[in-house]
Every structure is written in C-alpha cells, then in structure tokens.
C-alpha cells in the first residue's frame, strides 16, 4: 500500500509522484469509465441526476472496495489517458448538453489533474462533486462545488493519515460544500466514524452500510449480499438512535439497492 505520511517528506513524495504521473500521462487524465446520467446513489446528493467520471488508480486498496476495476492494476489496460476535450465530449453527449452535477470518483480522483476539467465544465454551467478518501490534498479542491471526504474505517485494512485529511480541508477552504461519509460494516467501524466525526464537528456526517461485493469479473452479474446490506442498515439506524447521535444521517447506497453492483449505473 502506498500511503502519504504525516511527516514533511510525505508532501515531497506527493509532488514527486505528481510529476511522474504527469510525465507519464502528458497532462491527460487517466479514465476508467464515464457513465450516466444516473442518480447519485450515496450521501448528500442522493437521488440527484449526475454523470460519473471515474478515474483509474488508487493509493489505497480497501479490502471491500466495490470499484476494484478502477483500483487494481490488473485492470490498468482498461484505463485510458484522456484530454479534457475528449472527456468533455462524452459528458456533454451523455447529458445532452444540459448542465448537471458531474461526480468525480475512482479510484482516487485526487491523483489526477482535474482542475482543467472542472474549469471547462464550470464555464458551461456544470457543477462538480468529488469523492475521495482524503489521503491526497490538492489546491484545486477549492474549485469544487461538493467535496465528499470518505476516510476509511478499520474493516478496510487501511490506516487514516489525519494530517492528509486536515490538508484536504485546508485546501478546500470555504467554497465547496464539504461532508464526511463513512462506510460501516461493524461496531469497530461505527466507533471509528463517531470518533472521526467528532474531530470535525462542523462537517455533516453520512453513514452508509458496507456491501460485500465479489471481486471482478464475478461482479458482471451484479451479485450482491442484499440481506446483509439490509440488516446492516437496520443495525446502523438502531445504533445511531441508541447513541442519540442526531447529527448523523444514515443512508443505504441507493444504486446498490436498485441495481446491485452493476457497472455503469
Ligand atoms: C469506490 S470509492 C471511490 C472514491 C474514493 N476512493 C473513496 O473511497 O472515497 C466511492 C465510494 O464508495 C464507497 N465504497 C467503496 N466500497 C464500498 C462497499 N463495499 N460498501 C459501501 N461503500 C463502498 C467508498 O467508501 C466511497 O465513499
Ligand atoms: N449511482 C451511483 N452512485 C454512486 N455514488 C458513488 C459511486 C461511486 O462508485 O463512486 C456511485 C456509483 O458508482 N453509482
Ligand atoms: S479508497 Fe476508494 S477506490 Fe480506493 S480502494 Fe478504497 S474504496 Fe476503493
Ligand atoms: Mg460505487
């Protein structure tokens, strides 16, 4: 696992890797898939029409990641370096030229140079939400309309770099609507979410039950552990009420309830 450290040399490593990625891509953005319009299935924008731009590559490898096709290097040959114009042509085609929210996800979209795409879309009346684990901070977070920070709980097997998360918030500043969203599988994840949320009391907190997704290519049939998801969301609601944690919002992944873990929805 590659992890940005809290020490100052961690920032240098980010810069070095940034330069390497840029040299490799020639300023292009590594895209796994562009799809929609569909509804945003998670968090504060749930139910709202959106087009997804999913980048390829992640500095994490969560044990339960439901988007491994955009993370695991075995799928690298399905990722394409694309220029802003080419990405935009697809977004405009999918949205019929009608401005809407573009959701930037991945992998970790913070790895990619997305500032040009955001500026291009803003000029045309589109808005941008970005979903990241908060391990890599970018100056251009301040250009976003919505920033969803989704630090990873113990069940993911990843370790949170709190300094990097703080940096993300600092870079974002006051402009984007910024939120926390936690995946919860069990009691330890719940305790993590509660503690992390308490660190940032000014940020709205969303909790979503984890789904157990078979790794690709088995996911082509969108097999999903629906009973497990339902029992976890019931448990999560009970748990939040028990704690009188009334600042939290509990939501299932609507797209998973509707379509399982099908790609492109
Ligand atoms: C695939 S990730 C990509 C963006 C970024 N890497 C991140 O994790 O925030 C998008 C969202 O899906 C969530 N997610 C991934 N796997 C999940 C699972 N098995 N169950 C529930 N949510 C999951 C992540 O926590 C994140 O909020
Ligand atoms: N409909 C829909 N909503 C989503 N919210 C977050 C998603 C993601 O994988 O990043 C996602 C996704 O893949 N589809
Ligand atoms: S950080 Fe996001 S994309 Fe990366 S492995 Fe974890 S859930 Fe998947
Ligand atoms: Mg998903």
UniProtKB/TrEMBL annotation:
Q: Pathway of this protein?
A: Purine metabolism; 7-cyano-7-deazaguanine biosynthesis
| Residues the record lists as binding substrate | 39-41, 54, 105
Which amino acid positions bind [4Fe-4S] cluster, per UniProt?
58, 62, 65
Record-annotated residues binding Mg(2+)? Answer: 67
The reactions it catalyses are: 6-carboxy-5,6,7,8-tetrahydropterin + H(+) = 7-carboxy-7-carbaguanine + NH4(+)
Give every Radical SAM core domain span: 45-261
One function term, GO molecular function aspect: carbon-nitrogen lyase activity
This protein's assembly is summarised as:
Homodimer.
Q: What does this protein do?
A: Catalyzes the complex heterocyclic radical-mediated conversion of 6-carboxy-5,6,7,8-tetrahydropterin (CPH4) to 7-carboxy-7-deazaguanine (CDG), a step common to the biosynthetic pathways of all 7-deazapurine-containing compounds.
Q: What is this protein called?
A: 7-carboxy-7-deazaguanine synthase
> What is the gene name?
queE
């Amino acid at each position: 696992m590659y992890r940005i450290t809290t020490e100052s040399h961690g920032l240098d490593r980010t810069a070095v890797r940034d330069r390497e990625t840029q040299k490799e891509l020639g300023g292009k953005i590594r895209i796994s898939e562009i799809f929609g319009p569909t509804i945003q299935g998670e968090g504060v924008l749930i139910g709202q029409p959106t087009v997804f731009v999913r980048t390829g590559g992640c500095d994490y490898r969560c044990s339960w990641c439901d988007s491994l096709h955009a993370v695991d290097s075995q799928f690298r040959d399905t990722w394409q370096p694309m220029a802003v114009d080419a990405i935009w042509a697809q977004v405009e085609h999918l949205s019929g030229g009608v401005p809407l929210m573009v959701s930037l996800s991945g992998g970790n979209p913070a790895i990619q140079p997305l500032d040009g795409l955001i500026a291009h879309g803003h000029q045309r009346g589109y808005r941008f939400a970005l979903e990241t684990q908060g391990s890599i901070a970018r100056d251009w977070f301040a250009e976003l309309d919505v920033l969803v920070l989704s630090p990873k709980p113990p069940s993911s097997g990843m370790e949170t770099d709190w300094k990097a998360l703080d940096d993300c918030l600092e870079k974002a500043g006051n402009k984007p609507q910024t939120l926390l969203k936690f995946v919860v599988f069990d009691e330890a994840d719940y305790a993590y979410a509660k503690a992390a949320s308490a660190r940032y009391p000014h940020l709205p907190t969303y909790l979503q039950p984890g789904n157990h997704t078979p790794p690709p290519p088995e996911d082509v049939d969108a097999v999903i552990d629906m009973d497990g998801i339902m029992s976890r969301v019931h448990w999560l609601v009970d748990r939040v009420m028990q704690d009188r944690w009334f600042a939290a919002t509990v939501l299932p992944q609507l797209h998973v309830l509707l379509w399982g873990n099908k790609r492109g929805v």
